[in-house]
Each structure stands twice: as C-alpha cells, then as structure tokens.
Amino acid sequence: MTHPAASRQTRIHAPLLSLSGITKDYGAVRALKGVSFSIDAGEVVGLIGENGAGKSTLMKVLGGVIEPNSGSITIEGREHAALTVQQSLGAGIAFVHQELNLFDNLDVAANVFIGREPRRGGPLQLVDNRALYARVKPLLQRLGCDFAAHTPVAELSIAQCQMLEIVKALSLDAKLIIMDEPTSSLTTAETNRLLDVVQALKQSGVAIIFITHRLSEIERCADRVIGLRDGSMVGTLARHEIGRDAMIKLMIGRSLKTLYNPPAAPPGRAVLELEAFATRTWRASEVTLGLRGGEILGMAGLIGAGRTELARAIFGIDAPERGTLRLDGTPVAIRAPSDAIARGIFLVPEDRKHAGLVLDDSIARNVSLASLNAISRGGLVDVKAEHRIADEQRRALRIKTPDVDTPAASLSGGNQQKVVLGKWLCMQPRVVIFDEPTRGVDAGAKSEIYALMRELADRGVAILMISSDMEEVIGVSDRVAVMHEGAIKGILDRDSLSEASIMHLAIGNVLH
Predict the structure, then answer these.
(1) Taking CA atoms, which of 119, 199, 220, 315 is between 20 and 30 Å from 188?
(2) Alpha-carbon torsion (296, 302, 308, 314), positive or negative
(3) What is the CATH number of the domain that holds 83?
(4) How many domains does one find in the chain?
(5) How far apart are CA 335 and CA 320, in angstroms?
(6) Among 255, 270, 297, where does a domain finish?
(7) Phi/psi at 426 (nearest 5 deg)?
C-alpha cells in the first residue's frame, strides 16, 4: 500500500510547462507533427534541429504569436488549447531573440522597461527616471554588462545589444526564458558570462529552453536535449548522453565525421600573396601570407585580432595602409571591391543579411547583382538570362526554395549563405574569402557549405576561411594561419592542428 504522504508528494510535483500533441499546418505543409515534451522549473533544455525542423514555429506557439491546429499547452497545471501573447507573458514566458528588437534612440534603461516604466504620482504620470535606473542597475550587474543604464543604445556594439536583450528578459521576472541563438554575436568572454548566468537562473528555479547551433554551449549548460527533425520530435538525450556527435546524429541522422571532406589533391602554387600588408586598424602590424590554389586556409584568432579587417582590405572595402598584394605572382592594386571582383577575388561576408544580400529582393536579383554587365543589353537587364543563371545556382547549390523569385529574406540562414555564394560562383572565382561561413547555420547546412568549399578548392580555387569555431577550423582547414593584434603569429600544417596549438598562437605566443 502506498503511503499517503508519498502519494501527495507525487501529485504535488508537476512540470512547469507541458506540450501535448502540438500540430501546426501552413496550407498543405505540416510544420509541427504532434510535438510533446515538458520542462521543469530550474531545468535547462537544449532544443536542437536543422533550420526548417520546426523550432521557430514551436516557439511562436509558446509565445502566443501563432495558434496550433491541435494539441494543448499546460502551464503550472492550467491547460490551454492556445496562448495569446498577453497570456504567454502573464504566464512568465520571456524570449531572448537572435534578431535584436531595440530602440536605438533611447537609452538602456528605457529599452528594458519600455511600456512598463515606473511613474511618479500626480496627474501627468511622468516617468520616474530615478526609480527606472535603480531597477535596471542590478540587472546589468547580474550579467556583468560593461555599459550603464543611461548609455544610449545607439552607442552599443552588436554584442552589447544582445546582452541588453537578455537583461530585458530578466526584467520580466520570468519563470521560463526561451533563448534563441543568444550568443550569436557575443565574444568568448561574453558567452562564458551568459552561460554562468544561465546556471544562476537555473539555481533560482527559472526554466530555460536554449536554442543554438553552437553545440558546445549545449554540452556545457543543458540538463536534457530535445531533437526536432521535419516538425517531429526524434529523440531526447539525458545529461550523461549529451555529446556533439550524439546531437548531430539526432538532428541529421548521421555522424559528425561526415561533415568534413578531405582534399582530393595536394594544393598548387600560390595564387594570392600578401607581403608586409597592413590594414588601417592595425597600422603597426604587418601580414605576410601566401594562399595556394586548391587549399582551404583557415584563419583563426581571438575577436579583434584583425581577421575581418584583413579580409575587407583584400577585397577593397578598406584601403590597406601599406604593403603589396600579388595575384598569380603579379602585383595588383585593389582600391575598391570592383577591382577585386574584376580579378576574381570574392568575399562572402560575416553579416550576410546586411553586407551580402538585399533581403527584400528575389534570389534571382541577388545572384545577378555582381554580374549585371554580363546579362544586360543597352542598360536593361535580360530577365530571362537572370533567371536562367539564378536557377542554375539554385540547382547546383541545392537552395531549398520553389523558385528564384522567392525573396531572400524568407530563406533559412544556410540557404541565404548559398545565395551569397551563388552570386560569385557564376563569375569564375580565383580566390574566395569566407568570413564566418556557418554563423547561425544548422549542422545539415554546414555540411553542405563545407562540401561546396571543398569542391571549389578541388577545382583549383584558393579559399581563405575566417572562423571563430575551433572545431570548424580544425575540421575543414588544410592549414591554419593564426592572427594576433593584426599580425600572423604562425601557420600550422594539418598534422599539427589542435585547440591548444591554435590558442597558443592566438594569445600572442610564437612558434618555437
């Protein structure tokens, strides 16, 4: 016979949140297929899946943005067929989105409590700024933010703005915080600080759903992992089962080792050479470097080491301070991106949405942007030629879209990156610079992008890959150049690649 006290204990314990049989249809497409899971107070659940797996749709259901076709949502014992946005907020569900939602004409404190500002007494009900700043200050301290409550948001960096989004969620006194790619714009130190905050929130009883493509972060913070694939739950990993290979298998059904492709042949001669090359950001430092045809040269270094600045100078966005750039042994002057493009030097930028794409334009328009002269007659674009070229790239790169008239904004991160690449592939590249090529991209799309990079290299193209993902650098590169304060501290061959050897150079040590 069960003891009465034990029976009461069983009844008292209930999940903070339960989803049961959640489905969502968009016309004939079923985006969610009977998703069911629960999360306890003080639990961190990693939610993983490729772009298009249903993660965003599921989170919109939880946020009250969309209504499911069937299923139920139970929060602290209260069942709902669907939630409104106000019901979601009232139930203590807060979101930290990858896309920033801030007013840059206001200061930090005003952004945190916008619409919820403390008011003074009297008929005018003016904002009580002293109380407002007093409420925000401890939240900033809790996250270790390096900006003040009165700092204008326009003066914050992207990373600081991401931290501010997290402060906003904390200000809601939430019971469940959904973090969607919260570290995508953070430095290593800021990421570590955020993961410490996640643990502190967990200890205080806050539940967290942590969504990220950076699987190492889930390894560090998650108590449990839930995998989605094609709108369905495909499995759960307990704490002791969480590992990168297990998570990738859950997402894409195949092993981590299949993501990387070995070179088909040894690299050729130097295609791009830099000699005593200095950027305006690092005027006191110089880069001497050779990039060979048929190789993927990884470029590693800490944030601010000068990697992106070097890429911008090579591509002609910023004029170099001094030095020589040789292409196929001949010195060339790259004064603008048009000079680089004319010589077959192309850049796939880190910020594809702002620097690589015109989001409101179609795939066809984006693919043809750099080659308009080749498909224009009398100053008018040959639309048939434009569509033909774009459709060739769509099929070659396996861009998931029904047609090339689809706006670039509607594509997943991986498919957007393929559109940026397609823009250059129709123009006979000699050198392609990839700056953070898989930032915000799921494991399946990463595999395809790595394969495309290797295919280019096997065709004799010289690839320079800038990446902050250590596993990516080691897995993809044939050699790795490591930068520190605007200079190359050393170049590592594939046989000597390791996290330790790269970090040794990244912090300013030299090879012995």
Answers:
(1) 315
(2) negative
(3) 3.40.50.300
(4) 2
(5) 9
(6) 255
(7) -85, 10
pLDDT of residue 7: 39
Asked if 184 and 288 sit in the same domain, the reply is no
Nearest-angstrom CA–CA distance, 262 and 296: 10
CB burial readout 319-351, b (16+ within 10 A) else e: ebbeeebebeeeeeebeebeebbebbbbbbbbe
Helix (H) or strand (E) holding 364: helix 363-368
Phi, psi angles (nearest 5°) of residue 290:
-120, 135
**Has residue 254 got a pLDDT over 70?**
no
Model confidence pLDDT, tens digit, residues 119-168: 887 777 888 889 999 999 999 988 788 899 999 999 988 778 888 888 88
Cβ-count burial 172-196 (b if 16+ within 10 Å, e if not): bebbbbbbbbbbbbbeeebbebbbe
How far CA 492 is from CA of 299, 350, 472, 488, 499, in Å, comes to 10, 24, 15, 11, 11
Cα 408-412-413 angle, rounded to 5 deg? 95
* Same domain membership, residue 196 and residue 66: yes
Q: What does pTM read for this prediction?
A: 0.64
Domain range enclosing 313 = 260-344+428-506
**223 vs 43: CA distance, rounded Å:** 6
Phi first, then psi: what are they for 270, rounded to 5°? -65, 130
Q: Look at residues 448, 455, 452, 453 and name the one whose alpha carbon lies nearest to residue 466.
A: 453
